[in-house]
From TrEMBL:
The keyword Disulfide bond does not apply. Pfam families: DUF6594. It comes from the Eukaryota. The chain crosses the membrane at residues 250-270. This is DUF6594 domain-containing protein.
Amino acid sequence: MTTIELAQLNPSARRTMHGYERLAGLMANDKGLSIFRSFKKLNAKNLLYLQAEIVNVQTELEGIIEADETSQDEDREKFSTSVCFLKEGIESGSEQWAKVLELRELLDKYNTAALQYAQILRLKRPHDTDRDVFKTWLSQNAFCSTIAEFNQWFGEEGVNDEENERDLVTLCGRYENVDSLTRWVFRVLVPWFHERVGVRRTKEKDIEAGTVYYDDEKIIRATRVTSTITSSVIPASSMLVLYLVDHMVWRLIIIVLYNIGFSIILGLLAKARRVEVFAASTA
């Protein structure tokens, strides 16, 4: 995870990397900042154009096929039953086969574009924290020489900034396949720690990029240890409390409260589905 630390920049070190090379280094060091435009509108328009081209060529091909079948020409009438005749045609090849090849090329482009667009649509939007860090870095590092390139992520403020932000995707989401506790640590605890302690003590400063890195894997391991300890303490503490309470009504109330607490904690500390939480709480 990355936080901005521009106060520690070394001017002489900053000159060693420029432009897109510097930005690429930032993205390479923090997977959560691999933020790009998806160009959904342009991709959809490209598919529509290809689809229209295919329909037009298909219509032309159907007309050629009908003309060949009703031509009263023995060779042309064989086109529908023999690829060999269709490819060889009358002397230098048939018009129908040329149109088939044109359609094949368009279909190949269309199918490739459709599958790629489907993959793009599955990409997640960057989380607010990562997006804000990335936006701050861009605003404080003028790495592009042209306005259009500088505004390629977030657009021109007040003009197309909201549209561009909705178009952003991340290639590797930091918060995917993690539990709620880990997400909370990434979103809340790490920024809080950095503002009060980490900004002075961390050794993970990238002076050249002007950023501070926190190891995602270490954070995930720490939350897993916390989850494991908590899952062991809760059942043991419930037995101790029930042992110390003699009144049956209070025991039943404690059991209900522990079940509620266990379900809430399980939902926060584990990637469990609702049915799994229900099964665990009723076991």
